[in-house]
Every structure is written in C-alpha cells, then in structure tokens.
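Sequence, please.
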C-alpha cells in the first residue's frame, strides 16, 4: 500500500477502506509513515471528514496499533472519560465508588491539557503516589482492589501518540473524527465493557457551545457503540467550576471532603453519582441509571468508596494513612492571598478558561512539556455565578509560591469575573444538560 494513495482518496472525498486505515495506523506506530504524510492525512480528514464506518475503522486501527488489554475478572470492566474542565476531580471519586459497586476500573488518565487540570497531576500531589506501575502490578491491583488510575504506557495506541503530536503542530487538532479516534482508541485499548463520557460545555470547557458539545458527544457515542463498547454520554455544565477550588492538591482536598461525607449533595458528588449510574446501568450492575446513581451515592456516604480510595493510594505508593490524615499529608502553598471583589453586586459570569490559565501560570499546570508542577498552588473558595459579592470582601483565595505570583493571580481572577447589579440574576444551567446514548 501507498500512503499517498490513501491521502489522495480522503482528499478527494472518497472513503478510505478499512485495510487502508489499518495499514496507515500501523505505519504511524512503526514510523513507516512520515511526519509529512501524517500531517497531510490529518489535514485531509479535517477538511473532508470521514464517514461513520471509516471513523470506526480508524478508531479500531489506532486501538490495534499497540497492546489491547483483555481481562478475566468477576465483574464488568468500566471507565469514564471527561473532555476536561475546571475543578473536575470526578475521576478520583468515581473510580473507587464504582469499584465499591462491583465494577473493575482500569482507569488510564491524562495530565493537564491547556487550561484544564489532569487526573494524574492531581493524584501526584499525594506524596509518593506514582502513576506508572508495571503491567503486572497494574493488573493485580485492579483485580485485588477494583481500581487503579495510571498513565498510558508507550505501547497503548502508539499510532495516536504519534498522530496527536503531529496534529498539535499542524493545526489539525479540531477535527471531530480525529478527536473521536484519539480518545476512543486509548479507552478501547484498556479492554472496557462499558464507558460513560462526560462532555463538558461552557466557558471552562474546550467545547464552548451546546452545538459543539452535542456533535462531539454524538460522534463519541456512535463510534464507541459501533466498536462494540456499551457507551453513553452526559453533556454537563462548565459555566462554573465543578468545585470551589482549582489546582492539584486543592482539588484532592475537595475529593477527600466528599469521600469523608462532608460534601453530600454537592455538584461534585451529584455529577459523580450521575456518571456512575450511567455506566453501572450499561454494565448490568444497576437496573437503570437512577438506581445506579443511588448505589453509587450510598458507597460514598457509607465510607466504602473512601476505604477503596485509601487502598488504591497505598497500592500506588502513597501514605498508608492518607484517608485518616490527608490534611497533614497534602502540600500547601507558601502564600495565601484573598481576592477582593472589585465591586459590590452579583457575580453574573466567571470565565473558567481564564481561571484555568491563572492556575497554570501559578505553576499548577505546564506551559512546556518538561515543566515541574507546584502541587499546592491554585485557587480555593471561588465565588460562583449567582452569588452576591461585596467590594473589598473575598471572592476567592489564591495559593501561590511567591507574593508576586499571588498578586498576578489575584488580578487574573478579578478579570475573569463579571459583576452586575444585585438584581441581575444569571440563568443557572442545570448540571446535566443532556444525555446521549
Ligand atoms: N484528548 C485526546 O486524547 N485526544 C484529542 O484529540 C483531544 C483530547
């Protein structure tokens, strides 16, 4: 086969054949396909689009470009994927809660991307926690405890690893077909029976509009189902942070409050229950999503999820007494400053993307791939849209490593807020905007 012929077909709007996409994905993984060819392929897909069967074929070809895990466990293997937002620490709560409900969760997660935080970075704020166990330890932990949260190994969907890096520098990240194949090739390589997707929509998400979020959710669900994985998606609100904190250790704090019963009824617990309910129902562990959500909430309220979280932390190198002593174990920033409200009135909007960038600049995320994170920095006590604020009174706290960095973040948070008159009550979108599946 010839890479040029495959690119020409796509460029001319002719659907590529399954075996051609398989050859191309193998070529990406082996290096037989050059960077120039990969860039041209990505641009042709972005401009012409793929048919649904071709998108499924590309996803499966990228999945099969590396190792595909198979499991033999006494329960279904499930996972969740989020498209990323501010204060989105659901994975840390959901993985142990699903395990407590009888599911097995080999969660392969990512690091911060752009203005959004990453699950691995959050977990690594726990002293000693490591996210790269060898395969035997990973498999044994999933079988023994029910969950593990780790980074993708190099042999998982290697075609995606290469294509993603090329898309990043060739203005081809935005293709729905390529985003779908990229996300799902890695998830399907983990050998899942069922998957739930959290597609975030709003100022703190990558998908700013409902139409964009719906198109991505539809593409992901159709492709995953066609590929044989039971899947549904929730489109969820990201016009405000999910919790009142943004930053690695600060979000672990929010998770620990939820796991220890101090956040019942919060948006974090509610979204975790709804996503978990979906996947428990898909996997046959609940009668329907409502029943699943109830079971999941019960494991959080009853302490079973906390117990499994503690075992997972210990198995992955963290302190054995983390659940009991998390307040003493998490890193704290050197400087904490209040963010005074610049005016009296009502907070009508909060630009989540600007908040996320403020956390990155504090050192909570990366500007360059090699940057080392400062796990204690970030924002806490963030006022949310609809709340009244008083000039000079705090509407958030900045946690920073230096006073200079803190003052810069204070100004950034003030710029991210729009304050209107007391009477200007913003419309409050529901947490779950839509279900697709
Ligand atoms: N996350 C991925 O893994 N791939 C994409 O293309 C976008 C987000």
């Amino acid at each position: 086969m010839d890479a040029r012929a495959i690119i020409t077909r796509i460029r001319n709007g002719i659907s590529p054949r399954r075996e051609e996409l398989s050859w191309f994905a193998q070529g990406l993984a082996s290096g037989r396909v050059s960077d120039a060819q990969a860039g041209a392929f990505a641009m042709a897909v972005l401009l012409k689009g793929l048919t649904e069967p071709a998108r499924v074929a590309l996803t499966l070809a990228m999945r099969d470009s590396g190792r595909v895990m198979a499991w033999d466990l006494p329960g279904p293997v499930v996972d969740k994927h989020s498209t990323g937002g501010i204060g989105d620490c659901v994975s840390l709560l959901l993985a142990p809660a699903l395990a407590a409900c009888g599911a097995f969760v080999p969660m392969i997660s990512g690091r911060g991307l752009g203005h959004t935080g990453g699950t691995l970075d959050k977990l690594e704020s726990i002293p000693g926690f490591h996210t790269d166990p060898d395969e035997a330890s990973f498999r044994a932990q999933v079988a023994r405890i029910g969950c593990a949260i780790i980074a993708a190994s190099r042999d998982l969907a290697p075609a995606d690893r290469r294509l993603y890096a090329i898309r990043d520098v060739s203005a081809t990240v935005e293709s729905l077909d390529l985003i779908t194949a990229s996300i799902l090739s890695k998830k399907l390589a983990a050998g899942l029976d069922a998957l739930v997707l959290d597609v975030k929509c709003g100022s703190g998400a990558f998908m700013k509009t409902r139409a964009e979020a719906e198109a991505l959710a539809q593409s992901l669900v159709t492709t995953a189902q066609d590929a044989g994985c039971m899947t549904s998606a929730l489109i969820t609100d990201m016009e405000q942070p999910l919790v009142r904190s943004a930053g690695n250790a600060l979000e672990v704090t929010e998770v620990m409050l939820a796991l220890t019963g101090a956040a019942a009824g919060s948006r974090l617990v509610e979204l975790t229950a709804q996503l978990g309910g979906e996947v428990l129902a898909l996997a046959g562990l609940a009668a329907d999503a409502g029943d699943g959500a109830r079971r999941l909430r019960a494991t959080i309220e009853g302490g079973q999820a906390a117990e499994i979280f503690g075992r997972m932390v210990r198995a992955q190198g963290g302190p054995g007494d983390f659940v009991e002593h998390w307040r003493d174990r998490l890193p704290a920033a050197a400087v904490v400053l209040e963010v005074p409200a610049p005016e009296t009135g009502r907070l009508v909007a909060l630009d989540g993307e600007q908040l996320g960038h403020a956390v990155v600049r504090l050192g909570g995320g990366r500007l360059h791939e090699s940057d080392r994170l400062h796990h204690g920095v970030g924002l806490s006590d963030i006022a949310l849209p609809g709340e009244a604020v008083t000039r000079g009174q705090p509407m958030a706290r900045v946690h920073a490593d230096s006073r200079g960095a803190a003052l810069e973040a204070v100004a950034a948070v003030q710029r991210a807020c729009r304050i209107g008159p007391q009477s200007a009550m913003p419309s409050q979108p529901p947490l779950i905007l839509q279900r697709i599946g």
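The chain has three domains: 3-63, 78-325, 335-420.
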